[in-house]
Amino acid sequence: SQQGEEDPQALSIQEGENATMNCSYKTSINNLQWYRQNSGRGLVHLILIRSNEREKHSGRLRVTLDTSKKSSSLLITASRAADTASYFCATGGAGGTSYGKLTFGQGTILTVHP
Amino acid sequence: DAGVIQSPRHEVTEMGQEVTLRCKPISGHDYLFWYRQTMMRGLELLIYFNNNVPIDDSGMPEDRFSAKMPNASFSTLKIQPSEPRDSAVYFCASSPSSVGKNTQYFGPGTRLTVL
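Predict the joint structure of the above. Result:
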């Protein structure tokens, strides 16, 4: 089963609203990453947060990480129709043979209506 | 930089035929990953290489699937014989080996349809 579990599975909002997606995981991690996938395309890296960080910003993106709860959230502020995509969290292993490997969640489908 | 290159972009074949998917990773990246994505199963890691050596192939579904990386700039995923249930989008991704910076760069994918 996938390490990361996103919530909700689907989210529908109006342009200008904020979108929040959550991710939970089970094992120790080195870092957590968020990716976006537009329909018919490959995944694109958005942001990486290390296990010793609690919050990170990049443009309209804000990511938080709570290692005690093994959870992360991705906030997209002032959403745009172009943000419509699937969003995946991915966890990087803490070491050993899992180094380099990412475990992806099932994704959240975000639809932003103009 | 051209990014990760995959070929073909689309492949339609008949059950029983051999299928070969190709990937050229980003130059200088030490890791290469093969994924399969379907609506039912989501994104599945099939196999990954580090410095051309297979590290974990536990995701390869059956012996019909095989992957090679003969050099740092080329990898193949082969399905022989193909079956309708192999229909999916197959992604190749590469990653540098910098500690804590294992961001993966995905190719555009190969959409495989097995009739």
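DSSP finds no helices and eleven strands in chain A.
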